[in-house]
Design goal:
Cofactor: heme
Bound molecules: protoporphyrin IX containing FE
GO molecular function: catalase activity
Number of helices: 13
Keywords: Heme, Hydrogen peroxide, Iron, Metal-binding, Oxidoreductase, Peroxidase
Shape: globular
Catalytic activity: 2 H2O2 = O2 + 2 H2O
Strand content: 15-25%
Helix content: 25-40%
Distance between the termini: 62 Å
EC number: 1.11.1.6
Length: 539
């Protein structure tokens, strides 16, 4: 039997060897030695030197010295909650995933976040918000790692380090901590006009949500669903908040940043504690899985594009209710590890080049953030499905594995229990045909080229008040840039969206509006490469 463990009242509770700390009436060391005193170091005389043999002192300070882990390289600041997802059964025609079945209930853990600020930054900054959901399904864990904005800054993950380097604080002064108001960000987005659409969403009221409870969520990429017959459908995932979509006024956001930098975090925890459980409906837009993977001329593999909901209505497939706050921020909110490749039978990825890079990045970053390869064993990351994985050893291994033959096939540990095909519930990737005769290239399709049309449509759909907010946001943010060339280049991008938007922002900045017929900013070939005569291998 395990060690005797006490509840705060002193009554013995179930002896779980993993329950540690603050559960009993007596203080102990990590080795369970009862302590009579934790306030004084062991000394040679009351005023004498502290003795190195004081193990309690060394253990206590050693552990404290190592309490911090690296914050996430992006989305470092977040807040989370537990809840439940209930399927409607309406997705059955397109998806065989068990958790979407009628009335199936699945525990979830959701983490909301800002993107750019550090762990200690403020909540109500103008930024994109992360909306990551872990579904602990009986068939394995499914993670939907999305944002509150339906498009992304870049079309290829190879540019992610660039956009994040541009968005993070300047390397010399480490400012600004959390907002987009600076030269490097605006330099990047004006040189990469594929970022125009996402940037515009950020400058709209969507960039300053009133509450996590009042945000939409989007899977952004197109996913491929598979039904029981093996038929496939392309989809985009949407979360629709039952409380509606609401934003702060810019002035409110700034005041909240000063008075209560924990505004969103507090709002979420208080609402749940008060029993006002936040709810979202999960929905899908569906598109035929044709070889072109387009819908009404929109390339479904381009994450900078939406498909208007008027053209492909969002069909509800389930409901999520958040019902409990984490009991320990570090154990749950900080250590949770999401991954867009955590899929279940019935859900597969597409060839969106942004998604491909994400599939590498999350697992990779978590090895250093969570100290080795065993973070799937951390309680918040444990799947609720049975595990038999043959992964062994490594830093922070806490499982005690049985068996002598962690390899496959073997003839010693009962042979090979695997080889479950789709019929037995095993995960099988959709056997998609890869374009025959494809060349290895570092190029992207012409269907990714239009960077403006959807942004213009978004602008034209706004009410006069919403337009005023967008103009004020661009004016404020660009006014914080030191470099006039950066401001001018961004005005030229705005001219391509709409002349009124451009003229008004230019007036606010006290600068002339650029000639809209002039050339759009272009990415120059790298001078360093061309000076050196460098070129990409043409493999
Ligand atoms: C973290 C969303 C693109 C790398 C996150 C988180 C969200 C998110 C919500 C926070 C997860 C959490 O709460 O723990 C998205 C969306 C993207 C996108 C919606 C585009 C559609 C990318 C790309 C890369 C990337 C292209 C890299 C190539 C990362 C990394 C983290 C992260 C390294 C930190 C993960 C961790 O430390 O656990 N992302 N992201 N993301 N993202 Fe992304």
């Amino acid at each position: 039997s395990g060690p005797e463990v006490y509840s705060p009242t002193g009554d013995p509770v179930d002896a779980d060897p993993e329950v540690r700390a603050q559960t009993g009436p007596r203080l102990t060391t990590a080795q369970g030695l009862r302590l009579p005193d934790t306030d004084h170091s062991l000394k040679a005389g009351e005023r004498g030197p502290v003795l190195l043999q004081d193990h309690h002192l060394r253990e206590k300070v050693m552990h404290f010295d190592h309490e911090r882990i690296p914050e996430r390289v992006v989305h470092a600041r977040g807040a989370a909650a537990h809840g439940v997802f209930r399927g409607y059964g309406t997705a059955a025609q397109v998806c065989k995933a068990g958790f979407l079945a009628k009335d199936a209930e699945t525990p979830v853990f959701v983490r909301f976040s800002t993107v750019l600020g550090s762990r200690g930054s403020a909540d109500t900054v103008r930024d994109t918000r992360g909306f990551a959901t872990k579904f602990y399904t009986a068939e394995g864990t499914f993670d939907l790692v999305g944002n509150n904005i339906p498009v992304f800054f870049i079309q290829d993950a190879i540019k992610f380090p660039d956009i994040i380097h541009a968005g993070k604080p300047h390397p010399d002064r480490e400012i600004p901590q959390a907002q987009s108001a600076h030269d490097t960000f605006w330099d990047f987005v004006s040189l990469h006009t594929e970022a125009t659409h996402h940037t515009f969403w950020n400058m709209s009221d969507r960039g300053i949500p009133r509450s996590f409870r009042m945000m939409e969520g989007f899977g952004i990429h197109t996913f491929r669903l598979v039904n029981a017959q093996g038929d496939t459908t392309l989809v985009k995932f949407h979360w629709k908040p039952k409380a509606g979509v609401h934003s702060l006024m810019w002035e409110e956001a700034q005041i909240a940043n000063g008075i209560d930098p924990d505004f969103h975090r507090r709002d979420l925890a208080d609402a749940i504690e008060a029993g006002a459980y936040p709810e979202w409906e999960l929905g899908i837009q569906t598109f035929p899985d044709t070889p072109e993977q387009t819908f009404e001329g929109i390339d479904l593999l381009d994450p900078t594009k939406i498909v208007p909901e008027e053209w492909a209505p969002v069909q509800p497939i389930g409901r999520m209710t958040l019902t409990a706050n984490p009991s320990n921020f570090f154990d749950e909110t900080e250590q949770v590890a999401f991954h867009p490749g955590h899929l279940v039978p019935g859900i597969d990825i597409t060839d969106d080049p942004l998604l491909a890079g994400r599939l590498f990045s999350y697992l990779d970053t978590q090895i250093s953030r969570l100290g080795g390869p065993n973070f799937a064993q951390i309680p918040i990351n444990r799947t609720h499905a049975p595990v038999n994985d043959m992964l062994r050893d490594g830093m922070h291994q806490t499982a005690v594995h049985s068996g002598v033959a962690p390899y496959h096939p073997n003839s010693l540990d009962g042979g090979c229990p695997f080889q479950a095909g789709a019929a037995e519930g095993g995960y099988v990737e959709v056997p998609l045909e890869i374009a025959s005769g494809a060349r290895k290239v570092r190029e992207q399709p012409a269907s990714f080229d239009d960077h403006t049309t959807q942004t213009r449509r978004f602008w034209l759909s706004l009410t006069p008040v919403e337009r005023e907010h967008v103009i004020a946001a661009y004016t404020f943010e660009l006014s914080k840039c030191y470099e006039d060339t950066v401001k001018e280049r961004n005005l030229r991008v705005l001219a391509d969206i709409d002349p009124v938007l451009c003229t008004q922002v230019a007036a606010g900045l006290g600068m002339p509006a650029p000639d809209p017929s002039g050339p759009l900013p272009q990415l120059d070939p790298s001078p360093a490469l061309s000076q050196l005569g460098g070129s990409w291998p043409t493999d």
